[in-house]
Amino acid sequence: MTFIDLLSTYHIMPQFPPAVMRQTEGFSTSVSVADTVGRKDLTDKLIITIDGDDAKDFDDAVSIELLENGNYCLGVHIADVTHYVKEGSPIDRSAFSRGTSVYLIDTVVPMLPFELSNELCSLKANELRLAVSVFMEITPRGKVNNYEICESVIKSVNRMTYSDVTKILEGDEKLSVRYSHLVSMLHKMKRLAGILKKKRISDGSVEFETHESKIVLDKSGKPISVEKYPITISNGIIEEFMLVCNVTVARHLVAKGLPCVFRVHERPDLMRLERLGEILPVLGVDYPFSVGMSSMDFQKILKIVEGSELSEVVSYLLLRTMAKAKYSEVNHGHFGLGFDTYCHFTSPIRRYSDVVVHRILKESLRGQLSEKRIKHFKEVAVGASVTASVTEINAADAELQWKSVKKAEYMSERIGERFEGVITHMLSSGFFVELSDTVEGFVAARTLEDDVYILEDNGVSMVGLNKKRTFTVGDRVKIKVAAVDVERCFVDFEVEGLTKLLPMRRKSNRKTGEKSAMDKKSKKILREITYIQKEEKNERLELRKKADSEKTVYENAVIATLFELISQRHKFNRAEKGFVGVTLQDFAAMTAQPVYKAAISENSDFNIKSILISASANAKNTVRIIGDSFGFEVDLALEKQASEFVCAALRHLDACMKFDNFNYSKRENEYDAIAKKSERKKVKV
Prior knowledge:
The protein has 18 helices and 21 strands. By secondary structure, it is α+β, with helices and mostly antiparallel strands. Mean pLDDT is 90; it is low at 504-518. The longest helix has 51 residues, at 517-567. The strands form 7 sheets. Strands 1-8-7-4-3 form a 5-stranded mixed β-sheet, with helices on one face. The chain has a 5-stranded antiparallel β-sheet with strand order 16-15-14-20-21. Strands 17-18-19 form a 3-stranded antiparallel β-sheet, with no helix packed on it. The protein folds into 3 domains: 3-266 and 323-408, no CATH class; 418-502, CATH 2.40.50.140; 539-684, no CATH class. It is 47% helix and 17% strand.
């Protein structure tokens, strides 16, 4: 898979619409005096940013003071993106559609143009920047006693990196001298972060042992190293500060009775909890199972395996047991973090959910939120929640896929080399092994030549029929890199040290004339397993094949119908048609995704009402993006017609996903009928 293939597959648009590029031309490179009017002047405060070595967009800065009463005053200062990105502007429409920035190893496809993300909004050192500041008075026990939220103007004193801050806190003399004006503050930050973490864990937050990959590429894009991303003291400081700030803002909005885009993480469902209760004893983890397990129980399980070889595997199993975090206009709390109320506020440069929260918060600070605006933001929160969740998952999938491509390229030069890894999860056809550098490969059961292996009912063990050797999740195994398919990102391992099983022969017993009972039994079991595996695989393939077909015909219908509607307002040349086609294609794929995912996983993150509200907002947004880009008017009639057709088509897709059969021509005609019905309504608009 090439980089262009990746962008196309995941509908990631590297270029911004023409209207966005025109709007960015009007931005200054610095903050004007007029922009600072009415804001709290914090330019005399000791404020710094702490980010990764290669970061370019700095959307959060921090400050800290020790108060006379022994409490800490923590300041979290977030880039005021909404000062520049006005609601309904071309940049705002584009950001809503993109939902998030996409980080592809050494390349970023940003949510906002670089003129904003890397320049005017980025909290660069020694430059005036507009911010929304949250000051929190925090006790030595980690409780937020008081807080103040204000629009501010700041000037970061230093751009610090995680590596340098960690070295200073560990006593690096050279850096401590260089940053002598910050040393005391950094140690205060370390102490407060420790207090906040202790409080968070005591309240039920779960600390998982997970590792991101750090992949280094050379100038040609070839991977030269793969390793675990280092998590340092300073990473933890910023994480704790952002968490407490997000909680404070969310609780502020709830206390005021205002809408919000919440970050929610619901309790694991009963089936997954029961499955966990079956697996843990197999791994030797003695913990009483109950259907009402809380995040505190997850904490205790991790404590049992802390420091052991099972630690990472159990973390992985607990993560798989949990529901996925998502955005919602309804507050369901955050199970994993142990928070009753939580939102994302601290990264508006790269997440649209945060942009919406900033808008609501700032209007409330100015006292401008009328009942009409509250109602408006409630609807915005629904649409933004679905769109942000879909785009977040899409971005995460793209990022994971690109890492898989580069890991496969990296391992393609290591065929035949030997490593040691940990078994992470099982399938009936084999198991996955993860190496210490985060590369994962598959060991096919058919390559375990010392026996005939079958998956146990517990789903975490594979046992040999004859020798009874067992491979279990969490086991360390020595492997050899057997093969790599870079195109499909497959890395195949073979377990080292296995003695090949002699072929089963149909020998007769000399005394009785009977054939070997064990041979017959093994063969029968193997045939049954193979048959079941084949049937299950075929069922999954058929389900996905039908869902893919339904999704394709829906997308084609949406693209064709909206293009026809828009073409009535503007005659596009060939180059313009290309941009419009890709824009509509991305829009159609995004609106179909929640329904498609529900069909193939039989589990929906959103109800159909929320999906339709989001689709309607996206339809209006998309035709506006195209209209803004090519200078023609998009009136309410066109918006309404586009919205009504897309919603009707999406309802039909949802219904069709539940049907057993599929006929392409029949389905095309059904969408044509929906489009004609929408056309007839045009007269009534």
